[in-house]
Design a protein that fits this description.
Layout (H helix, E strand, L loop, with lengths): L5 H12 L3 H41 L5 E6 L2 E8 L2 H12 L7 E7 L11 E7 L2 E9 L9 H11 L7 E6 L7 H14 L3 E6 L2 E7 L3 H14 L5 E7 L9 E7 L2 E6 L1 E2 L2 H13 L9 E2 L8 H15 L2 E6 L2 E6 L5 H14 L5 E6 L12 E5 L4 E8 L2 H14 L4 E8 L7 H12 L4 E7 L2 E8 L4 H13 L5 E7 L12 H14 L16 H11 L7 E6 L6 H21 L7 E7 L10 H7 L1 E6 L28 H5 L19 H4 L16
Parallel strand pairs: 2-3, 5-6, 8-9, 12-13, 15-16, 18-19, 21-22, 23-24
Antiparallel strand pairs: 1-2, 4-5, 4-7, 7-8, 10-11, 10-14, 14-15, 17-18, 17-20, 20-21, 23-25
Helix pairs in contact: 7-8, 8-9, 10-11, 11-12, 13-14
């Protein structure tokens, strides 16, 4: 910047004096305006910065991070999207508490509201000896065919006659989920079967907690419920069986040429069971073994005593040890050295708890002497019992014969024994105990000698060998020698032999594939020619477990859509009634009419229409398998109810791929108008237009 010298300033001063007062005033005003603008601008910037800082800090402290704050002089602009209207209102009020409300510019939006979610429907059903309780939330209006609140309460009340069912159910006006009806119906069915249970039903899962009377009942109930579970619904089962009272409380462990094994095993707790099985594995037991858990142990140290005994027999290398309550019998094989036997017996007597009484025997080497007295009983597969050998007198022979006829009820008993008065004391007791044990097998042999009772055979019960051991140890007493060589055969087990739902469906399809079904034309009356087929199907289904199966009726496209649907529904129901009349359990079966909606062939031809008129069996539930109908048999002429040959149109009424229930004598459930005598055909109507 150039500085004016004094001479130059003196030269400029005369020129300034020449300016008018107006010009000077204008210059002063401009200078003052510029100064004021600078002051105002600076003040505005300070206010904006201060306001922004205060408002932002307050919103951050409140956890509101969805607002953007901007300032323009004294104005405060709020922008953003509030989750809810209440949040927007709260934020504006919060800023208004810091600055004047007139300075706020509300530019906030509110997120669009979503539809209110339907509540989660669930029902809990509790059944005890005192009655039934219902609690939960249900749809106010059930879907078609579903259970409403009143109907559910009524059905539950029928299970506990004479008691009032506390109804703590509530309803909500929302549509029921797709699988709700099936889940609720299944839960009610589970409640019918389980007298002590809690059933929790939701649309996608049914939880069953119950108490059964025995392990066998537990297995049966679990199989039945799994088979009946509806498709798309998860089943959670927790069925427990009370611990049985085991009398006598037994364990028998054997080591011989066949290896180490249990003939019988009992434990008082699951922990004791694990300890015993671990000791058996260490002693050389191969494969899966089991111990029955129950009540009746003579001492809490049962598992310790059993583990010590198993170790002792393993050390002997040949022999057996039997626990019957507190009585312990150790039998060592004849090949065991005397020194080893003495050592093992000494250790065992020292280690066993005081409550146990040990009897130990070392078998003698058999010599070639005259054969000992024997009694044998043979149970054959065809239910014939042969009793041979020696008995003390005629009275004993009559008693043994009567006992055998009672123990083997329904079997043919042949008594071919001889009298020997020189038999040892207690012979009759040994014979009767052996016969009682033999009755536990399906096929086998009993051998009774003065020094041995041996039972061999085959059984369809997994617990038979343990039961035989209990019988012999209890009846013979301490110190007596017996052997049990009983093999489990799954083919004889009535539970294991039950066909699966898939196998039942396959058998049904095999009948469908070779047999044609006929109905009376234009009605749901099943033709009489199908009686043998109905009987065959009933014989199959009566041996099947409870399962979910749908009987579907189908028609061709001739006639009205509503009429076809009604006819197919009526025919499916007629099939269901025919099966029920033959004592088939239809509790898990449903009849559904599909009308013309699911064709399997072209309706443009007579053969196609005939194929579409059918009855199908479809396996539902947790198995998710479909019993697909088999191929159609060769066409045959259907017979009208009066015995005359049917017209081709009537023949076409027979479903190609369904079940033939023409022998059913149950009344028709078809709509009334379908079974009336047909009216004269209107002029111009073709024969193919009739259904």
């Amino acid at each position: 910047m150039t500085r004016l010298s004094l001479p130059q300033a003196k030269l400029l001063l005369p020129h300034l004096r020449k300016l008018s007062s107006t010009t000077l005033a204008l210059l002063a005003f401009i200078l003052a305006a510029g100064l004021m603008f600078s002051v105002a601008y600076g003040a505005a910037r300070v206010i904006e910065s201060r306001t922004l800082k205060v408002v932002t800090a307050r919103l951050d402290d409140a956890g509101i991070d969805w607002i953007t704050v901007t300032t323009d002089g004294l104005r405060v602009q709020l922008a953003g999207t509030a989750p809810r209207e209440a949040d927007r209102f709260r934020a504006v009020n919060m800023v208004g508490s810091l600055i004047d409300a007139s300075r706020i510019r509300d530019g906030l939006d509110v997120a669009p509201t979503t539809g209110i979610e339907a509540p989660k429907f669930s029902v809990q059903m509790l059944r005890t000896e005192d009655g039934i309780q219902l609690i939960g939330l249900m749809p106010e209006t059930p879907a078609e065919g579903g259970l409403g609140e009143a109907q559910l309460t009524e059905e539950a009340a029928q299970l506990a006659p004479g008691t009032e069912v506390p109804d703590m159910l509530e309803t909500a006006d929302y549509p029921a989920p797709e699988t709700w009806n099936a889940a609720l119906a299944f839960g009610l069915e589970a409640l019918r079967r389980l007298e002590r249970s809690k059933i929790s039903v939701a649309a996608d899962v049914v939880e069953v907690t119950a108490i059964s009377n025995s392990d066998e009942e537990k297995r049966r109930l679990e199989n039945e419920l799994r088979a009946a579970a509806p498709e798309g619904v998860q089943l959670v089962l927790d069925i427990s069986a009370p611990r049985p009272v085991i009398t006598p409380f037994t364990m028998r462990f054997v080591v011989d040429a066949e290896g180490a094994r249990f003939d019988s095993c009992s434990a008082d707790t699951e922990r004791a069971k694990t300890t015993i099985l671990r000791a058996a594995t260490a002693a050389g037991v191969q494969g899966a073994s089991d111990c029955q858990v129950g009540l009746g142990t003579p001492t809490p140290r049962w598992s310790d005593a059993i583990s010590l005994a198993i170790k002792a027999v393993a050390e002997l290398g040949s022999g057996s040890i039997t626990f019957s309550d507190a009585d312990v019998t150790l039998l060592a094989g004849s090949e065991v050295p005397q020194a080893t036997f003495d050592k093992v017996v000494g250790d065992l007597e020292t280690g066993l708890p005081d409550v146990f009484s040990l009897t130990s025997t070392l078998e003698k080497v058999e010599t070639a002497t005259q054969g000992p007295a024997e009694f044998t009983a043979t149970l054959s597969a065809d239910s014939k019992v042969e009793l041979r050998g020696r008995l003390t007198d005629e009275m004993q022979r009559s008693a043994v014969d009567a006992f055998a006829r009672s123990a083997f009820a329904g079997a043919e008993v042949l008594t071919a024994t001889r009298v020997d008065a020189n038999l040892p004391d207690g012979w009759a007791l040994r014979v009767l105990a052996g016969l009682k044990a033999l009755a536990e097998v399906d096929e086998g042999r009993l051998l009774v000698r003065p020094d041995l009772v041996e039972v061999t055979g085959v059984t369809g019960s997994t617990s038979a060998r343990g039961r035989i051991t209990q019988i012999l140890s209890e009846e013979l007493g301490q110190g007596e020698t017996f052997k049990v060589n009983v093999r489990y055969d799954e083919t004889l087990d009535p539970l294991a032999a039950l066909p699966t739902p898939e196998e039942c469906a396959a058998d049904v399809n095999a009948v469908i594939a070779r047999t044609k079904i006929t109905f009376t034309p234009a009605s749901a009356e099943i033709a009489t020619t199908a009686r043998p087929v109905l009987d065959e199907l009933a014989s199959i289904l009566t041996t099947c477990p409870a399962m979910q199966m749908e009987i579907g009726g189908h028609t061709d496209s001739q006639g009205s859509e509503g009429g076809n649907q009604s006819l197919s529904q009526a025919r499916a129901e007629a099939v269901l009634m025919a099966l029920q009349g033959r004592r088939v359990d239809v509790s898990g079966m449903t009849a559904t009419g599909y009308g013309e909606t699911q064709p399997i062939a072209d309706n443009g031809s007579e053969a196609g229409r005939e194929a579409n008129r059918r009855i199908e069996f479809v396996l539902k539930g947790a198995h998710g398998a479909t019993a697909a109908p088999g191929p159609a048999p060769e066409a045959s002429t259907a017979t009208e109810a009066n015995g005359s040959a049917a017209t081709p149109a009537a023949t076409a009424e027979s479903p190609v791929a369904g079940l033939d229930f023409s022998g059913d004598t149950s009344p028709s459930v078809a709509p009334t108008e379908k079974t009336l005598a047909p009216k004269p055909r209107p002029e111009g109507l073709k024969a193919e237009d009739t259904q």
